[in-house]
Amino acid sequence: MPAPTATDLYHRGADTLVASWEQYARASRDAAVIRAPGVAAAVFRAEPERAVYNNALLERGLGDAAGGVALDALEEAYAAAGVARYAAWVHESEAPLRAALQERGYALDATTRAMGMALTDIRVARPEIEQAPPAWAAYLRFLAADGVPEGLLAAAARGCRTATIQSTPMAERVYAAVGFRDLGRFLEYVPADR
Question: For 122, how many CA atoms within 13 A lie in the half-sphere containing its CB?
């Protein structure tokens, strides 16, 4: 099987992110993930989730027209839910979409750091830390207290071949040492008037 490209990995990571929002929404009162062309918007009407999870992910590669449609859809989703405080996530490489957000009165959220996304191939033969390649074994032992290794190893045992993380700048070297690749950062834009 050929190694996945950076674009393949990015799409897998974006899908995983939105799937995690869907899981949070299923467990929350009055919440949903709204999917529209070019955007997925996590809409949480009730507290405490309302203060944290109202985020929308804009797809990469949208042209001007499709970007405008996606921005209209995310604004409609939050307006319909009565949610004024939310963030639109856009990949750092999407200069036209970032400009469109600014033209609509959004500002780069200075209170949050850009989130990096990185992925790697999972190459674990058996679901045991001792069977992992040396760098993976060290990484899994490092994360053992949080239960992360069990999740990665169980995913590998089910046939999953990639893992997605969002990293802080401090942890990037740790993840790179075990094979994760940097696929860029999501920047958060918020309506400037709110």
Answer: 23
Residue type, 169: P
pLDDT tens digit sequence for 23-51 = 999 999 999 999 999 999 999 999 888 88
177 Cβ neighbours under 8 A, 6+ residues apart: 135, 139
**Span 113-125, pLDDT tens digits:** 555 544 444 544 3
Element spanning 139, H or E: helix 134-143
**27 phi, psi to nearest 5 deg:** -95, 5
Burial of 7 (0-12, 13-18, 19+ CB in 10 A): exposed
> If you search the block for the tokens 């027209």, which residue do you land on?
65
pTM of the model: 0.76
